[in-house]
Amino acid sequence: MDEHFAKIRTQLSSKLANQQMHATTLLAVEETLKEQGAEITPTAYFATLMSLLDQQKDDPEVEEMRAAILNLLAIVFPNVPVSVLRSQYTATLSVFTTILALQPAPTAPSMRSLVTCLEHLLIAQDSATWNHTTTLKALQTLLILSLDSRPKPRKRAQEAVRNIVTHPPLMMIVHPGMKVVVQTTLQILKESGNGVVGAAGSKDKENATQMILHTLQLVKMVGKAWPVEQFLPLCDILLHLPKLNNPYLTSSAFQVFESLLSPKESADAPKVVHQEETQTPAETLDEIVSRLAKVTQVMSAVLELKPNANDATLMPLWLDVVRAGFVESARLQDILKTAGQGADIPQEAIVPIIQLFKVIFPNLDSSNPVSVHNSTVDCLKQLITHCITDEMIDLAVQELRRNRGQQPDSKKKRNVIETVSATIKGGFDIRYQSSWLGVLEILKTLFERLNHAANPLLVSFLPIIDELRFTPAFTQKAHLDVVLSTAISTVGPRTFLDTLPLNIDNPEERKRGRAWLLPLLKSSITNTEFEYFATTLIPLADRLNQKAQECRENGMMKKVYETLIGQVWSLVSGFCDLPVDMELAFTKQVAERFSNVLYSVPDLRPVLCQALTSLVTRNQAIVASTESDEVLEREFLITKEEAARNIEILQQYSRPYLMVFFNIFQATLPQFRGYLLEVMRMYLSISTPKDLQETFSAVLVQLNTALTTVQSPVQQGDAPPASHNLMDLADIMVPYVDGQSMANLYSIVVSLFANDADAALQKKAYKIVNSMAETETGRVVLKANLEELMRNILDTTAAATATAKRARLSLIGQVISLLEPADLYFVPSILSEVVVATKEVNEKTRDVAYALLVAMGHKMKAGGVISTERVGDMEGEAVETPATISEYFTMVTAGLAGTTPHMVSAAITSLSRLLFEFHKDLEPSMVSEMIGTMHLFVNSSNREIVKSALGFIKVTTVSLDADVVRGHLQEIVSGMIRWSHEHKGHFKVKVRHILERLVRRFGYDDVVAFVPEADKKLLINIKKRRERAKRNKKNGSSGMDMDGDDDEGEEDTSKKSNKPLYMQTNFGSAYEDALYGSESDLSDDDEDDEGASEGKAAQKKSNKKKQGADAWIKEDGDTPLDFLDRTVVSRVTASHPSTQTPRKLKDLSSAFKTSSDGKLVIDDSDDENEGGNDEEEVDGETMELDQAENNYLESLKSVDGFTRGQGGRIKFNKTNKRGVLGKDDDTEMEQAGGAGPIRSKGLKDQRPVKLMGQDFKAKKAGGDVKKKGRVDPYAYVPLTSLRKGAKEGLSLTNKSKSEKRKSGKPGRRS
C-alpha cells in the first residue's frame, strides 16, 4: 500500500486529469488525518475514504471524484483488518450497492475498483453473514458483472467470484455462496444453449454463443470448488455443447472439463489476503468415493466424444481432458487404498489403461499434426506415471517368471504391462516414423515407472533401440542415448550388457563393438549388483591392460586400450552407489585389489576414492531415512538393516584403508588432495574408537620423529616434508579422537608457535588448535590448559609470521570466547597486535581482525575484572579495573599515541569500527571527545593518518545521531575541507562524498556556513548537481514510476551499496556499507555547471548505461551497406555514430550581411560583429579545440592515418584505405588524363578504378578506335600499371582474361 501511495503522490503534476485527481484526493485525505491528529493506518484510510464515498455515492456529477476514491479504496481494502470489515459490513455494502445501481453505470476502471473492494469485503465475512439474503445478492451482482460485455470488468469480476468461492469460511468445505453460483450458471447455460438452437437470426445466435462462452469461462475458474452433487448436471450440459458444431463452444467445454477434473489443491491457486489462517477440513472418505463415481461417469462419456485425429484444435483439448480425468481418478483410488478402503473402489472406476492406449496411441500417426503428437505423448506419459499401479507391475513380473521357458499362448489374455509394451513396440513401425522421438519419450517414462521391474519386463526393447542406434538414417542419437541411460539404471548393467555386449576386448567380424556405451554406463549405473563389476569388468580391464602391454610398438592402439581401461574402471563409482549385494560381493580380495590400484595407478585414485566414499554415504542415507522398509525395498532393493550391516563391513576395512590413504596423501601434492580429504573424513567417521586410537597414536609417533629430524628446504613444486603432511593428517583426525589423544597432540603443536623458521609449520600448528576449539572435546582440553595457551600466545607475538597471522588471530578469537571474567587481562595484553592487524595487506586477515575487535568488545561489555598486575609491560601500581565498554575504548584510544603513523592509522581505523558497533553503549561525552580528537588527526601532515581519520568521520556521519554530529559540524567541515584540493589517494573524492552526506543530513545552509569563502565553489557544485539530479529524476520518471522518493533526508545504506566490487564480497556487513558505501550517485566532474555541456555529458553517461554492450553500424548517406564486403567489420562501432561525428564549425556566412537579392555584403570595416548578433560570434578557442578534435579523428580514420602499437611502432590504417576511398558513391572523380568522370558503383569494392582511354573505347569492337581531331589512344598509356599486384596487370582493352579466352585471343604469350 505504501508503495502504491508513494507512486500516486508523484502524479500531482501529471498531465492526465485522472492521475491528478487520484493524487489530489490522496493528499487531501492525508491532510485531513493529520489535522485530526489520527494515526495514518489502513483503518484510518478506510474510514475517511468510505465517509467521503458515502457523500458522493449518488451524485452523477462527480464521477471522476468517485473513481479516484474507489481506486484508493481498492488499494486500502487488502490491508484493512478482518474485524473492521466485519463490523462495517452493512454500511459498506449499502454504499457499494447504491453505486452499482447508478445510471449510467460506472466506467470500467471504477467498476474494476468496486469489484476489488466488494471481493475483499465478502471474503472477510464469516458463515453467519453468508446466511443473509443481502450477502447472497451481492454475490449475484458479481455474477452478473462476470458476464459483462466489457472484457476487463468481466475478467475482474470472474476472478473475484473465483477467489470468494474457492476460499470458504472457517471449517467449511463448500462455500455457502457456491449454491448461488451453480444455480445461476446452469440456468444461463441451459437458456443460452436453447437460444443457440432456436435462434431466429444470426445476431441472436451470436449473442447466445457469447453468453455461453462467458459463462464457461466463469465455470472454468470456479471448477475446483464445484460441489460433487452438481457434477452430473453440469457435465450433461457440457457434453451437449459439442453437438452444436461450434468449435469455440467445444473447445471451451473441454477446458471446463479439465478444470473440473483437476485436483482441488493447485499450486497456482491465488493467494487471498483476508482468508483466515485456519485449515479447511479434508474430504471424507464418502466424499472421495462419491467424487470418484462422478469422475468415472464423466470420463466414460468423454471417451465417446473423441474428435478426429487430424483436428489440431479439438484433439489436444480432448487429450488434456482425458489426462486430467484419469489422473484424478488414479489419485482418488490411491487415497482410498492408503486408507484401507481399496475394496470400496468399483470395478468400472479402474483406469482402462489398455483401452486408452489402443484409442490414443494411433494419434501418433505421421499424417496427424504436430500439436496432436505432442499432446498424445504428454497424455500417455501421464497415464503411465499415475495410472499404472504397483499391483499391475507385480502381476506382470509374476506371470513372466511363471511362463518362462514355455511357449507363448496367443489365446491367453495379456496383462496391462504386456499390452502397453506391445503397443509401444508397434510405435517403431514406419507409419509412426515422424513421431519416433515421442515414442522414445513414452518408452523412457515406462522404464522409469517400472524401475527395477523393467528387468525382465522391458529387456526386449534393448535390441530395438540398438538397431535404431546403428541406423544411418536416424540422426537423433542423443534421444536414444537418454533412453539407453534410463534402461541401464533400471534394468541393471548385467542384463543390459548381456543383451548388448561391449565387444571391445575380443571383437569378431560379425559382432558390433559398443565402446560408445561406456560413457553412458558411467553416468547411469546405480543401485545394482557389485558382484558383476568384481567378476566381469575387472577381468575385462585386466585383459585390456595385457593387450596394451602387447602393443608397445603400436603407440596408437596402446593409447586406445589405456583409454578403455580408464573408462572401465570409471564405472566403479556407479557400482558402489548403494550396491544391493555388498555383503556377498565386497570381499577381502576386492578390497585388496582396490588398495593395489590406489598405490599403482595414480590416475584412478580419484575414481576409486569417490567410489569408496559413496559406499559409506549412501548406506548412511538409507539408515537415516524416515521411509519404511517396504518403501525402501521397492525403491532401492535394500532395507535399513541391510544398510547398517554394509557399514559394519566397511568398518572392518576402515583402518587398512586409512593407512593406504595416509600414505597416498603424503605422496600427493597439496593442490591435488581434495578427494583424499573427503574419503579420509568419511572412513574416520565410521572407524571404531580402538582403530582411531591406534591410528592416531601411530600418526603422533611419526610426527614426533619428523619434527626432531632436520629437514632440507623444500623447493617449489616438490612434495612437502613429512612433518607438514603429518600435521595435516593430525588436523583431519582432530574431530574424531578422544580427549587424551587430543591433549597429546596439543602438547606437541603448542611448542611450534615459536618456530618462525618454518612459517608453514607454524600456520598448521595454529590451525590444529583452532580445529580443537571447534569440538566439544577440544574445548575441554583448551580450557584445562587455557593459562598456558594465553602465555604461549603472548610470548610468541614477535615470532608470528605473516603466513600464520590469520590462523593466529582466529585462535585468539577462540581464546577470547573461553575467557572467564577474571581472565580479561588477556584483552589489553593482546590488543595492540589485533589493532595493527587491521592494516594487514591480506583482506581475509583484516576481516578476522575486525571481527576479533568486536568480539573483544562484547567480552568487555559483558563485565569482569582486569588485573593490571597480570598485563605484560604494565607500569605502575597493580590494580583491578572493572571491564566495561568504555574501558575498552580507552585501551584502543591509547594507540593514538603510537610512535609510527602506521600504528596511529590502525588505532583510528579500529576506533571507527568499534564506534560503529558500540556507539549506543557509550557516553555522549566520550563520543564527543573522540570526534574532537579526530579533528587533530585530520589536520595531520601524514596521508595515512588522514585517510583513516576521514574514514572515521564518514562512519561518524553515517552512524551517529544528527544531534551529536551537529555539535561538531564546524570541526568536521573545517578540518577536512583543506584536503578537498588534494588529488592523491582520492582525498578530494572522499571529502566531497562526506560533504554530500552532511548536506543530505543537515542541509546546504548549515554546512556552507562553516566552509571558507575560497572553498565554497565545491559546495555550490554539490548543490547544483543535486538539484540537477532531482530534476532529471522528476522529468525522467513517468506517472507510473514507483520510485518517486525525495532525496532529502537520510539515505538507507542497507538498501544500496556503492562500494567497490571487491568489497561486495565481504558478506555485506553494515560497517562496510557505511565506510565504503553511501558514495555519491552524482558525476565525479568537479567543474561548475555551465549548462548544456554538462547536461550532455550526463546524458551520454546515462545512454552508455542503457546501451550496455550494444553495437552500431556506420553508414554513408543513403547507400545500403554490403554485409558481404570484407571491410564491413570496420563499420561496426561500440558507440553511437552520432556521438562520433566531429562538431561542425558555425557557418561563417551568417556573420555577413545579405542584400535584397541574396548576395553577401562584405564590409571593409575592421569592427567585428558590427550590426550582427553576439551569439553568432565564433569563439576562437572553441574553433581551435574543434579543429584539434577533427585532426585527431582524421588521423584515426583517414587513408593516411596511423596509430602506434606496442613499442611505439607505427601501424598504418590499411582498412581505412579500403573503406574510406570511394566513400561517397555519388562523387565523381576526374582522371588525371582527362578520361572523364568515373562513378563508384557500390560498396563491394570502394577503391576507385581508373579506366584509362575511356573516350577511345569502341562500342562494338574489342579495342580502341581513332577519333577525328583527337590524339592517338596509345599516347596516353603509361608504362607502369595503375593496379599493384602480381595477378593484376594493365589491360589495354579493358577486358578480363576470361573474356579474351572466349574471343579466342590468348591472355598471355606462351
Automatic annotation (TrEMBL):
<feature type="region of interest" description="Disordered">
    <location>
        <begin position="1254"/>
        <end position="1273"/>
    </location>
</feature>
<dbReference type="InterPro" id="IPR016024">
    <property type="entry name" value="ARM-type_fold"/>
</dbReference>
<dbReference type="InterPro" id="IPR011989">
    <property type="entry name" value="ARM-like"/>
</dbReference>
<dbReference type="InterPro" id="IPR052087">
    <property type="entry name" value="RRP12"/>
</dbReference>
<feature type="domain" description="RRP12 N-terminal HEAT">
    <location>
        <begin position="13"/>
        <end position="264"/>
    </location>
</feature>
<dbReference type="Pfam" id="PF08161">
    <property type="entry name" value="RRP12_HEAT"/>
</dbReference>
<feature type="compositionally biased region" description="Acidic residues">
    <location>
        <begin position="1163"/>
        <end position="1182"/>
    </location>
</feature>
<feature type="compositionally biased region" description="Acidic residues">
    <location>
        <begin position="1042"/>
        <end position="1051"/>
    </location>
</feature>
<feature type="region of interest" description="Disordered">
    <location>
        <begin position="1026"/>
        <end position="1062"/>
    </location>
</feature>
<keyword id="KW-0539">Nucleus</keyword>
<dbReference type="Pfam" id="PF25772">
    <property type="entry name" value="HEAT_RRP12_N"/>
</dbReference>
<feature type="compositionally biased region" description="Polar residues">
    <location>
        <begin position="1130"/>
        <end position="1142"/>
    </location>
</feature>
<feature type="region of interest" description="Disordered">
    <location>
        <begin position="1078"/>
        <end position="1182"/>
    </location>
</feature>
<feature type="region of interest" description="Disordered">
    <location>
        <begin position="1196"/>
        <end position="1247"/>
    </location>
</feature>
<feature type="region of interest" description="Disordered">
    <location>
        <begin position="1279"/>
        <end position="1310"/>
    </location>
</feature>
<feature type="domain" description="RRP12 HEAT">
    <location>
        <begin position="370"/>
        <end position="667"/>
    </location>
</feature>
<comment type="similarity">
    <text>Belongs to the RRP12 family.</text>
</comment>
<feature type="compositionally biased region" description="Basic and acidic residues">
    <location>
        <begin position="1256"/>
        <end position="1266"/>
    </location>
</feature>
<dbReference type="InterPro" id="IPR012978">
    <property type="entry name" value="HEAT_RRP12"/>
</dbReference>
<dbReference type="InterPro" id="IPR057860">
    <property type="entry name" value="HEAT_RRP12_N"/>
</dbReference>
<feature type="compositionally biased region" description="Acidic residues">
    <location>
        <begin position="1081"/>
        <end position="1092"/>
    </location>
</feature>
<feature type="compositionally biased region" description="Basic residues">
    <location>
        <begin position="1298"/>
        <end position="1310"/>
    </location>
</feature>
<protein>
    <recommendedName>
        <fullName>Ribosomal RNA-processing protein 12-like conserved domain-containing protein</fullName>
    </recommendedName>
</protein>
<dbReference type="GO" id="GO:0005634">
    <property type="term" value="C:nucleus"/>
</dbReference>
